Amino acid sequence: MLGLLVLLLISWGLLYLFEEKNLNALGLIPSKDRLLQFGLGLIILVLSCLILIGIETAVQSVQWESTEFDFKTFVQALYYHWRSALTEDLVFRGALLYILLTRLGSQWALWISAVCFGVYHVFSYGILEDRWILIAYVIVITGLTGYVWAYAFSKTRSMYLGLGFHMGYNLLMACFYEAQPYGELLFSEVSKQELLDPLASFYSIFRGLVPTVLTLISLRLLFWIGLFTPTKIRDPSYEFDE
């Protein structure tokens, strides 16, 4: 929690220094609409990942077995993924993104945030010395994910929707796959049929893109039906309403 408090303090300092704003600029104060955004973001990513797991089960004939459910461990995992998702979102889709949006406009800001998010995962996955193809793959896949989540912030002017996306993905994947410190919370993979190249390479790209593409489609649909009214951070060419 100390790390989060430090990040919040740094975020407040950056916002005040560059924009004369406080943390309200990030939409952190809970409200009915923001909690709805978080809930929908969580549901969208859980469903997207379940679709991905269903496809993988069919394509690779995956055999699953249920693991012994431990309520205490699940709650600990829930807290862990909330804390880790919020930490990363404060860094990549918080004050710095807000400042970039106001100074550079949405296109530059979203892509800068996306590239930084992708490069960060090269270090967090510990693959800095791996093949450049794997490094490029991680940067592109996680970068595109970061772009969509940053896009959600730029349109809602709140971190809640993106936080729901982030937490939903991390938690659901931890329910099925190995992860540290919490993994295979509900199911574990017993066996699967390995794919051969070039099919394996194409499928790996497809697998990495599915949640992001489904998230983007869902996000555009939410705005299209008017469930959320899109708002824009101030672009250099105009002022935004407070």
Whole-number radius of gyration? 19 Å
Quick one: how many beta strands?
Answer: 2
Distance between the termini: 30 Å
* Sheet with most strands: 2 strands, antiparallel
Contiguous helical run count: 8
- Can you tell me the residue ranges where pLDDT is under 50 for at least 5 consecutive residues? 235-242
Order of helices and strands: HHEHHHHHEH
> Within the largest sheet, what's the order of strands?
1-2
Structural class estimated from helices and strands = mainly alpha
The averaged pLDDT comes out at: 90
Level of helix content? Answer: 55-70%
Describe, in plain words, how this protein is organized in 3D.
It contains eight helices and two strands, in the order H-H-E-H-H-H-H-H-E-H. With 242 residues, it is mostly helical. It has one domain (32-224). The chain has a two-stranded antiparallel ribbon.
Question: In summary, what is this structure?
Answer:
With 242 residues, the protein is mainly alpha-helical.
